[in-house]
Each structure stands twice: as C-alpha cells, then as structure tokens.
Design goal:
Elements lengths: L1 H47 L21 E4 L4 E7 L4 E6 L1 H4 L4 E7 L2 E6 L4 E5 L5 E11 L4 E4 L3 E9 L13 H11 L10 E5 L23 E4 L10 E9 L3 E10 L16 E7 L15 E7 L9 E6 L3 E2 L4 E7 L2 E9 L12 E10 L8 E4 L13 E6 L4 H14 L1
Parallel strand pairs: 2-9, 10-12, 10-22
Antiparallel strand pairs: 1-3, 3-6, 4-5, 4-7, 7-8, 7-9, 11-21, 12-13, 13-19, 14-15, 14-20, 15-16, 16-17, 18-19, 20-21, 20-22
C-alpha cells in the first residue's frame, strides 16, 4: 500500500518537474520570438528606405539638372570641309531624358548666339555657316516655362569653305525682286477677289526663333488686314491689327506676326486656344486642283497659334484640320507686352507634306482672333478681303519666291553706297 502511494507521489513529482521545466523556459522563448520579429521588421523597413538613410547622410535627390545629353554631331574638334557656302553642318543632339518627353525645349547656341530652338524629337537640323572659322556649340535645356534646367559643355568644331562665296542657286545675286514678282503675277492663276498675293522670300540664313523682329527687316511685310468675321465689332487699328512677314528655305516655313491688341485675353490651352486671342493659318497646298472647291480636304491645313495663356504659359500651336492635334514639330517663340504680342515660328515642310520651290503658289490666309474680355471670339481680321473658316474658296494666296541671298545682296549694296 505504502509502495503504491510512493509510486504515485514520484509520478506526480515527475509530471510537476516536466511542467516546471517548460514554464521556466517560456520567458526565454518569448524573448527569442520578440528579437526575431524585430529583426524581420527592421530588415523589411530598411529595404524600403534609401541606402544612406541609416548612415546619417542626407538622401540624394534626383533633379532635372542631372539630364544627360550629348552631341551626336558635330563631334569635339571635328573639321568640316565644304566646296561652297551652300553646304551645311548637321546638328544632332541625343538624350533619353529629352527624347522621351515633351516637357523640354532645346536651345542651340553657336559662338554664344541662339541659332535654333527645338521642342520635339528628333533634335536635329542643318546649320549653314556664313564663313570659314572656328566655332563652339552648346545646348541649353529649358522646361515649358523657359526655366533653364541644364547647360551642356561647349563642343569646338571648325568649318573650311574652299570656294567661299559660291552658291548653287542661279538667282543668288542681282535679282530684281519686284520685276520677278510682276512676271509671276502675269502668269499664275489666283483668286484676285480675295486680295493680292502675299510673297514669301527665300532665306539663305534662317531667322533665329526668339520672338524678336531683328532678323526680319529684309522680308516683305503685310499689314492690310480686313475685318471678316463679326466685323461689326471692329473699332480701329488700336483695337486689333497686325503686321505679318514670312520666309522659307528647303527645310521650313518661317513667320513673324506682330499683333496690336489693346486687351490680351487668352485663358485657354491646347485644343481651345482658338477661343482666346490667337492667330490662325488656313493653307491649301494644292491651289490649282482646289481652285473651285469650297470645302476642306486632305491637302488643306488649319493651324492655330497662341502666345501663351494669361498665366504666362509657353506659346503653343494646334492643328484644327486635318489631325486635330498639337503641331509638335513647330518651333515657337512669343512676347507679350502692353498693347499687343508677337509670335515667331517655323513649320517644317514635311508637316505640310510639301517640298518647297521657287514660284510655288498655294492658298493661304492668316487671321487674327480678338476676344477682349469676352469668353469667345469678338472679332476676326484676315489677310483676305473676305474669309470664312469653312469655305476654302475665300482663301488668299501665298507665293514662294527665290529673290537671292538678301543678306549678302544687302551687304554688297551697303558697301557700294559707302564707296560712292
């Protein structure tokens, strides 16, 4: 009996010892679990933080100033040997930051003078040097508010024109421009009821697109704008008027329009810029075929331009017809001032599906839309005597003409005058 009791007591003590053994070690197990979970949480958080977060060093912030671009052409110290002064230097800039974004403009400077502004890929063009010499080229990247975000290094290159002064054009010098215009008007067919044609002279040195009129003194000026739509609201030239000039080369159509407007009002962007103060080109690139056709077709273009909205946004363009989309290939610059604004730009010929040539004729009207303080257009004045956006037969006429190298001829005339 006593033996049985003793055995029971021993078994109970053994069980109690086993329970006590686990209980004694429970705090250690809990501590280990807490440490393990803490380490797991720590490494998860660390993996999501910057590498230098726990080092005490400030985190590196990637900014727009880290934009990476390079000149594919010209290369550093490259030398160009030309046979005549008509040849050009290919300019090309590469960089994934600018090629994959529409948020930047690329300003090209040669010998610290702004030569070209590009706002969409591909960032390339052909530059015609005026003379033999050494040059430095660099690019300045700006955002759409014209803030400089990057400036490249200067790339030196050289140009050697073997036959300097020689050109490929048979009309480069000694052209009587007025006589040539008269002969053209005698043989071409145009809509005389819509006004006399506007001439656009060829440029051998393209204007710098910077919003200034400095490069335009030698080109024709058109200022006979006529009220055409809502013309009952027209008061006088101070309310709304303009001076238009244009020129061309084998790559682009260039234009400058200086608008007098006593109240500038452009609250819109994008496809609504025609609701505010703006400029509109309507172009018929095949006038002969469409001479008696009143409606827009596949060879017509309606392109709208804004000097920027009331908040100071960059100038922009929009193709109302035929694509209903921005004209990203256009290069624009604008200035707004008390009493008006100026828009200067270039449109590549490929955007109009055209190859330019001397004496090429097309339908063309430039119109200025004025809104004053209203929410929509109050008045339209046009280069045509009559005009309707939906009637191509109301278009005026634009004629391209090669009048020779105006800059060179002007310099020659100035030198002759001084010597006499």
């Amino acid at each position: 009996m006593n033996n049985n009791n003793n055995n029971k007591i021993k078994k109970q003590n053994k069980i109690r010892k086993q329970k006590t053994f686990f209980t004694d070690r429970f705090p250690y197990i809990t501590f280990i679990l807490i440490i393990g979970l803490s380490l797991i949480i720590f490494f998860v958080i660390k993996g999501k933080m910057p590498l230098n977060f726990f080092s005490g060093k400030p985190a590196t912030v990637t900014s727009e100033s880290s934009i990476d671009i390079y000149f594919a052409s010209p290369s550093k110290n490259q030398s160009f040997e030309f046979v005549s002064s008509n040849e050009t230097v290919p300019i090309e800039i590469k960089g994934k930051d600018i090629e994959n974004s529409n948020n930047y403009n690329v300003n090209i400077y040669i010998n610290d003078k702004l030569i070209k502004t590009l706002n969409s890929a591909p960032f390339k063009f052909n530059w015609n040097p005026s003379q033999t010499g050494s040059y430095n080229i660099y690019a300045q990247i700006t955002d759409k508010n014209n803030n400089v975000v990057f400036t490249s290094e200067k790339i030196p290159f050289a140009v050697d024109i073997k036959n300097e002064g020689a050109t490929e054009s048979t009309t480069a010098e000694n052209v009587n421009i007025n006589e040539k215009k008269s002969k053209i008007l005698e043989k071409v067919n145009y809509r005389s009821q819509n006004g006399e044609p506007v001439f656009s002279l060829k440029c051998y040195t393209p204007p710098v697109i910077d919003g200034n009129a400095d490069d335009w003194e030698l080109y024709d000026k058109f200022s006979s704008f006529t009220p055409t739509i809502l013309k009952e609201n027209y008061t006088n030239a101070k309310d709304c008027s303009g001076v238009f000039s244009s020129c061309w080369d084998k790559d682009n159509y260039y234009f400058l329009i200086q608008v007098t407007d006593d109240v500038y009002n452009q609250p819109y962007n994008g496809n609504q810029i025609n609701k505010g103060d703006s400029v509109v080109f309507v172009i018929d690139t095949d006038l002969e075929k469409d001479f008696n056709i009143p409606f827009l077709n596949g060879d017509d273009f309606q392109i709208e331009f804004s000097a920027g909205n009331n908040s100071g946004s960059a100038p922009e363009s929009f193709v109302r017809w035929p694509s209903n989309s921005p004209l990203n290939s256009a290069v624009l610059a604008a200035k707004k001032y008390s009493g008006g604004y100026t828009i200067e730009g270039s449109i590549p010929w490929y955007a109009l599906n055209l190859t330019p040539s001397d004496e090429f004729i097309m339908g063309f009207t430039v119109s200025i839309l004025d809104t004053d303080n209203l929410e929509s257009t109050e008045l339209v004045i046009s280069s045509s005597r009559q005009f309707d956006f939906n009637n191509v037969s109301t278009l005026g006429t634009l004629i391209l003409i090669d009048g020779g190298d105006l800059q060179k001829n002007n310099q020659t005339s100035s030198t002759t005058t001084k010597s006499n």
